[in-house]
Amino acid sequence: MTAYTVRPIAYVRSPYTQKFGIPRQPQLVPAARADIVFEADFPADCVRGLEQFGCVWVQFVFHDALNEGWQTTVRPPRLGGKAKMGVFATRSPHRPNHLGLSLLVLDSIGNENGRIVLHCSGADLLDGTPVLDVKPYIPFVEARADAAAGFAPAPPPRLAVCWLDTPPPEPVRALIEQSLSQDPRPAYHHDPQRRYRAVMAQWETTFRIAEHTVIIESCQTLQSN
């Protein structure tokens, strides 16, 4: 068997600095904006023409799960965390090679100190994620509305969001609301009094979930710490 060596071409700059709270699929949180910052040795010619496309495929490494190994079967949250499915029938990060694939909206292409930067939205990526490849999304080839969707035939239902604390300014408020409305809890958690902590875009939120509603009890900025 031939061994292959790959190296990151870029890294992700994301509002999600911890795994908890990251949407389980791309596009579920339109307010989640992320930048793909290329390594310095990739010239601007590498993305010539990419601005003509509306979305990009981003292939990356689940770097924060590398030490957790992989499993032949996993319990998808969409099935309530009870039924097991083969790892290749899911998008679990616990895979043999820990590779992920996200479809992001390409908002614009910029340059920072000579580095290519792709400004994207609808991200489901952890800050610092290594990117292995970027490809343009081609709708007539890759969009199949008639394809069977297995146990995930539609987007998950959204929870209502109730603020008990003063919300942060936009666009952070939209990011937090859209992210938490996806119910980031492990599927087996059902205690309405249990409190959770999530950090997004340098804002720390404490919340609980009861009767299909996210109740945000506090939200404080971490930028001054």
UniProtKB/TrEMBL annotation:
Keywords: Methyltransferase, S-adenosyl-L-methionine, Transferase. Pfam families: TrmO_C, TrmO_N. It comes from the Bacteria. The keyword Transferase applies. InterPro entries: TrmO-like_N (IPR023370), TrmO_C (IPR041369), UPF0066_cons_site (IPR023368), YaeB-like (IPR040372), YaeB-like_sf (IPR036413), YaeB_N_sf (IPR036414). One of its GO terms (molecular function) is methyltransferase activity. Belongs to the tRNA methyltransferase O family. This is tRNA (N6-threonylcarbamoyladenosine(37)-N6)-methyltransferase TrmO. It comes from Conchiformibius steedae. The lineage of its organism: Bacteria, Pseudomonadati, Pseudomonadota, Betaproteobacteria, Neisseriales.
